[in-house]
Design goal:
The chain is of the alpha+beta class. The protein is about 40% helix and about 10% strand. Strand 2 and strand 3 form a beta hairpin.
Length: about 160
């Protein structure tokens, strides 16, 4: 739905007129931000970026965007009504917890290759957790076998 569809979507079912006809005027008042507020905020961020980069000798600022990988999602509820033939589907419901794709860009406008972040459950043994954090950057034993070659090939 785009902004031109918003008034049509806001119509009440019986009257055919917008439920709230002055919504474009109320929106800026609700957030109490004006265009000059946004300009001042942007100027402060630009000033901080410029002086912070030179002060700390920073050449490149990276921007990472994290989104869930789209996959088929099965429901955790029953598929049919309760009765003698109830069918249950097992699903953890943790699609974003398992795999996430990272989109990376920098302040020069360069877009870098998409990469996947795969998460596995932590070990319950404290010694193994410590070893994973110190030796394998938090990855488990099996996942580290596939991540390590990628780490060696990639220079970032």
């Amino acid at each position: 739905m785009d902004t031109s569809d918003a008034p049509r979507a806001a119509r009440g079912p019986s009257t055919g007129r917008p439920a709230f006809k002055n919504w474009p005027k109320k929106l800026p008042k609700q957030h109490k931000n004006t265009v000059s507020d946004y300009r001042e905020h942007k100027a402060a961020i630009d000033h901080y970026e410029l002086h912070g980069m030179s002060r700390y000798d920073i050449d490149v600022i990276y921007n990472a965007d994290q989104t869930a990988v789209k996959s088929e999602y099965l429901p955790t509820k029953t598929l049919n009504k309760k009765g003698e033939n109830t069918v249950w589907v097992k699903c953890g419901g943790k699609t974003k917890d398992r795999m996430t794709d990272m989109l990376l860009a920098d302040n020069t406008g360069t877009k870098h290759t998409l990469f996947l972040v795969i998460r596995t459950p932590k070990s319950k043994i404290k010694v193994v957790i410590q070893e994973n954090l110190t030796m394998q950057q938090g990855f488990g034993k099996r996942l580290w076998e596939s991540v390590e070659p990628c780490k060696i090939r990639t220079v970032l």
